[in-house]
Amino acid sequence: MTTPRQEIELAVGFGKHIEKRKVDVPDGDAPPWDANSKFTVVGTDADRVDGLAKASGRAKYTYDINFPGMLYGVIVRATIAKGKLDVLEVDEARKMPGIAAVVLLKEVGNKVRFVGDPLCAIAGTNLDVIRDAMEKVRAQYTTEEHNVDFLQNPEAPVLDGDGNLIDAWPEHEIGGVIAGAEASHEGTYRTEVQTHSSLETHGAVARWQGDDLEIWMSTQATFGVRGELARALDEKGHKPASVSLHAEFVGGGFGSKFSAGVEGLAVCLLAREAKAPVKLMLDRFEEHTCTGNRPSSLMQIRAAAKKDGTLVAWDTRSFGGVGFAPGGGGVTFPQHYIAEVQKRGAHKDLVCDTDPPRPMRAPTWPQGYFGGELFLDELAGKIGIDPLEFRLKNDGQVIRQEQWRMGAGKFGWLQARNPKPGSPRDGDDPRYLRGAGLASARWGGMGNHGGRTPHGCTCRIHADGKVETRSGAQDIGTGLKTAMAMLTAEELGLAAGAISVFVGHTADPSGPAAGGSTTTPSLAPVIRHAAWLARQELAKIVAQHLGCKPEEVTFAGGKVGAEAAAKPMLSWADACKLIGPNPIETRGTRFPNYKGEAFNNGVCGCQFAEVRIDTWTGQVKVLRMLAIQDCGIVIAKKLAESQVLGAMIQGISYALHEQRLMDKRSGRMLNGDFLRYKITGPADMPPMECIMMSVANGHTNTSSVGLGEPPSVAAPAAIANAVYNAIGVPVRHLPITPDKVLQALAARRA
Amino acid sequence: MTKPPPDQPQEAFSRRSFLKGASVATIAGTAATAAATAATATQGKPETFGPGTHEIQLKVNGQNKLVKVETRTTLLDALRDQMDLTGAKKICDRGACGGCTVHLDGQPINSCLTLAMDAIGGEITTVESLTEGGKVHPLVQNFVHCDAMQCGFCTPGMVMSSLACLQQRGKPTREQIQHDLSGNICRCGTYGRIFEAVERTAQGAQGGGK
């Protein structure tokens, strides 16, 4: 399809860095915003539109859906890590009191691939009677030897006692460049498996009415999982006449909820067999062990630089600790420092008999940025150059250059930095060591138009003055709903709170899955387009009433009218009374991103952290953190800040606390609960600040870029660098738990 | 948890007293029978409960409600599945996350660690009580104003623990707020703004103002 286009000149960039750039705008699109646009709603501190629903406990998540006569469902899972299923008997369970349905999820003869591999699912009147029935399920296996440690995989590299790779680097000319450079360095870095730990577990409620299926699911991909389930049910001989899916409120996802999963299919089959609605929500152990994770990694890095700090070569080999199948274990190093240098990189996934990874917030990036940024601080130390200066030297991105300087000033970088790593700061109790670190963030997230089926959005204006904006995409807590309200309000000259927003139901126009920081940048232009079209419809009606031209009608401050008209301005309510019984209804279209280069093809950020180490206990306390971040033109400022602050807190968690511990003998996760799988809690919280920068990228009518992933990239690396500055030796293995700190301190003394 | 103020009965329900009670009961035979007997002992003769379901009366947000429970049914399941009070969330079901926090006789408790039968005779307060009759409690307003939430799944539990903190301390320090909320976890990372919401409420702010 070719759309007629018009060339428009925009002011793109930020602050003092504003350039004029011609962009190719599709005909029919709303006129693009740029750096000179003035806003009354966009970019302000408007409240989250569903904030009251959430804080009052009245929001209904999938877990909260109840129906009269609803049954509950549970999945029975394998207790061995590897082998073959020889016997699966469920007849006894089926006969237990209160049991309404049993469906098989694995057949005799199938492989068992990890502890938790699903065997069958049971529905009954409550969880207690189901637990009684579960004990009557009989499974027998032929077990095989299993391995749940990726470094015990036969293809894993050999490490020395300090955790460094000892195999020689494969021959390559880069070896000569590094050997002959003015400065060079080498190190091996490691991260552990992190589970997504969404607070609402995976699961769904399924209700059949005849052959029509209605599902409530805790998902990040309303349209994706609907299609997935329709196909899977068809294959099982239960083709539904229609499938409608709800995800109006979702209790977290972080990348783990793109698929309907075995639980999604199981609940539909149970409801079919039981002829009643069924709710099946996983428990916390299943959530930790059967719904994916961020895989572990091992990264060896060597690189070289000139005496002035300019990087000249970058050589890596990395390994990802994945589950029973390869894939998803990669690492991404900070490319913006090394775009111009000679490079080599090799990666291999190492399988073991566990639950496979799923994308987790900036998949592959926090690992590589931890290794890469800590490595750079070590190299900077060798050269004798300040880490900030080192970054400024090698970071070609103009936005981040500004962010580095702004952040360093705001944070008090030079004062926070420990001039003598490993020694207490003047005036401090000598038991404690303080230090400061920094790291960069980057991501794409320019949004997409949806390919063959472009994303849509409906805007309705009713005669009673109510305004609706509707998308079938989901808001998993990122703030899509609030962005929808603010964009619509901006076009119509109203307050964000005046807009009713509906998301998460497949009856509304389709939108993207909440992944890759694409939801808001994909939908913002189409939401605005729908509102802009609705505004034009209302302008026509009002113009007729006022006796002026539609293009003369203005919308501002809840008033509609035209200065040129003889009649006075109308209130919003009076203007809408002219509409009549049928509401104005417009359908926005998501045009492809504009042709030509955006000001920045992504987003930039940087973070700073100060830590205090207790040399007696090895405990790391984060004292304060600062983030500077852009996401194109900021729409909902307060919510954007929340997302960055949340990523920093998750970053503390990944840097200091989180690791999946596996029992080698049973192959079972030892800490599959929130008692022993530690995530950052209220008592761990340092003061934190986030500064949002607005950048007009000129790639869509709203210049919006995604924000979910980038702030989670920098935080763990900044903390690891701060620990290095405090104690004078790098801890190259996340999480930086007290044992590793004490070991590092002992090694330093020795 | 914090010390109850002097006007509170010292035997107010807590996780510790529950555990203590449960261990004694286990020695006696079945935990539920002993607990239920204790709950109804005022009626004179001991009653036996279980197996199967029993109709009990619970006082929730000032109203008496009849619910059918088994002796093993938790207060959380009774609230969520029988009364459709789904503000208290089931997140860990092990007392490790605080998502199911409700108040029993003014004390915050993990309703997932409390048997429904053990709440007989007590005053149960859930998060829904803070937005009854068209009024919104200032704490809830301030959660919204400070954007002290993202996905919102931990939020009702956070609100109830924050409420207990405010009721017991009046004007808590930042450190006291962090301490009192330590039984609650949030995965999205909203702690800082929760602390701000509690502080604003303590200062008498109603939310919305700038």
Name the shape of chain B in a single word: elongated
**Which class of secondary structure composition applies to the elements of chain B?**
alpha+beta
Globular, elongated, flat, extended or rod-shaped: what is the shape of chain A? Answer: globular
- Poorly predicted sequence stretches spanning 5 or more consecutive residues of chain B: 1-41
CATH topology of the largest domain in chain B: Ubiquitin-like (UB roll)
Strand content of chain A: 25-35%
* Largest β-sheet summary of chain A: 7 strands, mixed
Quick gist of this model?
Chain A is of the alpha+beta class and 750 residues long.
List descriptors.
heterodimer, A: 750 residues, alpha+beta, Aldehyde Oxidoreductase, domain 4, 3 domains, seven-stranded mixed beta sheet, four-stranded mixed beta sheet, 18 helices, 29 strands, 27% helix, B: 210 residues, Ubiquitin-like (UB roll), DNA polymerase, domain 1, 2 domains, five-stranded mixed beta sheet, 7 helices, 35% helix, 13% strand, disordered N terminus
Please characterize this protein's 3D structure.
The complex is a heterodimer of chains A (750) and B (210). By secondary structure, chain A is α+β, with helices and mostly antiparallel strands. Helix content of chain A is 27%, strand content 25%. Chain A contains 18 helices and 29 strands. In chain A, a hairpin with a 2-residue loop joins strand 23 (554-556) and strand 24 (559-561). In chain A, helix 9 packs parallel to helix 17 and helix 16 packs across helix 17. Chain B is of the alpha+beta class and 210 residues long. Chain B has a five-stranded mixed beta sheet, sandwiched between helices. Chain B has two domains: 15-41 and 54-128, Beta-grasp domain (Ubiquitin-like (UB roll), Roll), CATH 3.10.20.30; 136-202, [2Fe-2S]-binding domain (DNA polymerase, domain 1), CATH 1.10.150.
